[in-house]
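Wed. Picked up where I left off yesterday with Probable butyrate:acetyl-CoA coenzyme A-transferase. The coffee machine is broken again, so keeping this brief.
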Amino acid sequence: MRYSAEYQSKLCTADEAVKVVKSGDWVDYGTFANQVVELDKALAKRKDELENVNIRSAARAYGPPMTVLADPKKESFIFNSGHFTLIDRRMHDYNLCNFIPILFRECPSYAQYVKADVTMIAVSPMDEHGYFNFGLSNTYTKAVCDISKKVIVEVNPKMPRVPGGNSESIHISEVDMIVEADWTMPAIPNLPITEVDHKIAALVLNELEDGACIQLGIGGMPNALGKLIAQSDLKDLGAHTEMLCDAYLDMWEAGKLTGKRKNIDREKMVFTFALGSQKLYDFVHNNPAVASYPVNYTNYPHIIAQNDKVMSINGVLEVDLFGQVAAESSGPRQISGTGGQVDFVEGAYLSKGGKAFLCLPSTYTNKKGEMFSRIKPTLSPGTIVTTPRPMVMYLVTENGIANMKCKSTWERAEALVELAHPKFQDELIREATKMNIWTKTNKKPTLDQMVS
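Structure written out below (tokens, as returned):
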């Protein structure tokens, strides 16, 4: 191989590689499934030699970093995440992880604002042309490598090699050190599909059309929708999404996802990261039907909108009677992140024939068995607004669909009361009246209306 000598000259152990990290450095760990494992273990061993090393990442998929576990007092390592999984959230609960508010599509441009001393990225093995592929997570990886003082790749033969639109790989000439590893890709189990998930998915399914371009978020409802689409009469659907998940496999295997009617990236399933089962990872490996792009392509609204009939389907946590949507925090507790919800809500709206659906169960039950409404007069104190009310298009609960566009505050309140559980409607109306967003012409929905 032409580059074998250069490869060998840069090959070292993880312990040797992490010696380049100095106190006060900012170290990037990669995002989602291309976060490093062996290099993290090696850096954790240097706890007593370092202080104030900031680690930057997003969406842990492998369990807590060894650097965090080795230093719970955050004297040597401070971990920062731009998007939370259950792992990040648990660390945050114990003050072991800090959140970085971001607009996902902007991340490659943040290079002008951030410090990047060392970047460590998990990659697939080098090809005959000297390129390492970023595999399951393109996102803003190349942009960070470009500004980093030192780039270390952790080569893993189990990392899929994913065809890209651009920025899906890095050349050996741009790499300072190479570490070899062999760990299993993190398989993310599908969340169970509830009866409510199925009802919401069925309502959204009725809004879809042949040739629609689908974007799905994560959760039980998108999984349910993927299965319903697979069983439907829909045809020639496309995929342009932030995350590629197993729901797309269901649609693909059923012959529904051809991409033949897309205006850009025809017949390609476009995404910026993939998370799901090993079956999904096997599917994207060397598959010309998929195309990995950086997030400033997949999530940029004016690129999204170049496809017609973009259907964006995402989950949310809470909505107030003004139509403000919270999808990342419950009170001050960070649950997830802004992600691409805002990007795709806007992109779908700009798309010819496009629709953006924000979905939530109308209620939740706490550990004591008490039921609460997810539709509230105002958002719970401390809750972060993810999607501002002027941007919101369709809101969906198991009780129906309401379009918020160009509706006055009293029209929004009426529509949202109809989406709420009957148990909470009277209380919501009372609060709406106090806030002067309920008029004499407003109608309270009857139980019969709710059921129909």
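Quick read: The chain has a mean pLDDT of 95.
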